[in-house]
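New to this. Look over this protein:
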Amino acid sequence: MLDYIMHLSPGILIALVIVVFIGLVSQAALYAKAGEPWVAALVPVWNVIIFVDVVGRPKWQSWIIMVPGFTIMTVILLYWPQLDGLFPVIDSETLVASPWGTKSSFADATMPLMVMGIVSIPMIIFMMVIFAEICQSFGRHKTSDKIAAIVFNGAYLLFAIALSPTAQYEAPWYKKKRGLPYTVPEDPRKIKAQQMAKAQAMAKAHGHGHYGHKK
């Protein structure tokens, strides 16, 4: 598998790096906009806890994502030879890939593939719900927005919500729709504008006072 990935074309590798980068940046920007620490996007486990917290869900529900994730990682480690054998072997001199199944077949990897597929189902469904609730939390209530968030994931969160001046954190949607108490952090831009206005007012008042003193 690693051999196969390392011999992918530079274009594909660059695309993969861009996808990962967009995912990290979108999470960081989204968390900052919701008043959460942006650095959480870079820390495994913590980023999942903050992810569900942004929409107002109990932090324990992060396990709906993490348990399948840990299970998949464990299965990959335990069945690495069978899974690795599904990928074609790249000749180091000719860079030509041997046909699929030369090392192992899908029949050999049936068990790990089934386990990973089964444990992925609740995680995928839960993630789809979370993405829809993130849209609601940031004022994106149209069905088209929810579909776009589910399909494009990090790219949508980055460009349509995190970097959008019109998308503001309105409420943790899970709590709001259930009538649970919640708080919404004040918009950092509003705080900055208020600070600038106050500074300008003080500078203006100081200038008037200085002018009056000279007269």
Observations:
- The first helix runs from residue 2 to 6.
- Residues 2-184 form one domain.
- The CA atoms of residues 37 and 151 lie 26 Å apart.
